[in-house]
Amino acid sequence: MLRLPVAIGMIALLAASPAIAEIARVKTSSGTAAVDRGTQRLKPAPGLKLEKGDRLVTGKDGRISLTFIDNTRFAVGPNSRVSVSEFQYDRTRQKGQMVTQVDRGSLAVVSGKIAKSGRDSMKVRTPNTLLGVRGTKFIVEVPK
Amino acid sequence: MRSLGAPAAALLLAGCATSSLVLLPDDEGQQGSVAVLEAGGRPADAVIADGNSRTKLGSATPASRPLGSKGLKKGEAALLTGLPPPAKSFLLYFDQGTVQLVPESAKVLAAIRQEIASRSGPEIEVIGHTDTVGGDETNDRLSEQRAEEVVNWLGSQGFDRSQMSAVGRGERDLRVATADNVGNAANRRVEVIVR
Q1: Given pLDDT bands bounded at 50, 70 and 90, which one contains residue A22?
Q2: Residue-wise burial string across B90-125, b where 16 or more C-beta atoms lie within 10 A, e elsewhere
Q3: In chain B, what residues touch A141 (CB-CB under 8 Å)?
Q4: Is this complex scored with an ipTM above 0.90?
Q5: Rounded Cα gap, residues A131 and B34, in angstroms
Q6: Could you tell me which residues are beta bridge partners of residue B43?
Q7: Closest-CA residue of chain A to B78
Q8: Model pLDDT, residue B11
Q9: Nearest CB to A67; choose among B37, B57, B195
Q10: Residues 6+ apart with CB under 8 A from B3
């Protein structure tokens, strides 16, 4: 009995979203930098469309910048591993939720419409903390 | 993680105890805040709200210090410089019941073209709207056609269609609230968001 609502929810989700849901685009990258998607390693060329679950990985001289479809902006610094583990955004209602994981390195964030759409609808996880973003600009650093 | 003894867990936490947060005012000068919802695996309920402050993360009761005269570290400043430019939004207006742009919109088209050309890896979202003259279905179609018209024009200017998405919202999202069947120039529009 419990399974039914979940199944219906998933059908609704599938119907509402296109096959590949773009969540963000790479704007710039430099140095040693990659986007890991499953077992694939992609080059973060400007305009690369990012998907939920993608991992942004940089080496000691690497950087990646990106803008999400809700206007959230990221700059990933050197020696970093950052992934967007959850992302949902309804363009029409301008509401959504996202969770970003900063495993190591540094990330600058300017929050967008998701953070404005509800209390703690944008979260950032570091190895020792879960943060709820309430509309702002900030930097998270996680040294190795 | 659960099977680890308390000392081992404490060691693990100590290993990443230097995670930190720098909180800044946004580009409009507004100060937001960041809540600490969990610290060291336990629920927490603290709010970091001081602008231009640095906070060591990991404690349920984090203490923020002002950035002070030393300001941002070099790496932090470089990170901020590397942020993409904010999204920019433009409005184009149309003649009643048509996909014909009003003459004044020509210079907005030029500004849109320039904005896209100035950006690395641009994404363009085009959203068409109508006023309340005409039926819902007609207006849904008209708003889509207006959005398509703009996308076609951008395509003719050499921009890649894979950068663009177009959607029509009919009369659902009026810029100026009116009764049904009221012509309103401000509502007959296409919004173009360049990211």
Answers
A1: very high
A2: bebbbeeeebebeeebeebbeebbebbeebebbbbb
A3: 19-22, 76
A4: no
A5: 6
A6: B38
A7: A77
A8: 47
A9: B195
A10: none
Q: Is the pTM of this model over 0.80?
A: yes
Domain total of chain A: 1
| Domain-embedded: residue A79 | yes
B residues 17..76 contacting A (CB < 8 A): 17-27, 30-41, 47, 57-58, 75-76
Structural domain boundaries, residue A100: 21-142
Whether A14 is in a domain gets the answer: no
Residues 6+ apart with CB under 8 A from B109: B92, B101, B153
Confidence of residue A8 (pLDDT cuts 50, 70, 90): very low
User: pLDDT (tens digit, 9 = 90+) per residue, B73-110?
Assistant: 999 999 999 999 999 999 999 999 999 999 999 899 99
Secondary-structure class of domain B88-194 per CATH: alpha beta
Q: Chain A window 1-20: which residues touch B at a Cβ cutoff of 8 Å?
A: none
Q: Which of B24, B27, B39 sits opposite A129 (nearest CB)?
A: B39
Which residue in chain A is spatially nearest to B76 when comparing CA positions? A139
In chain B, whose CA is at the least distance from the CA of A45? B121
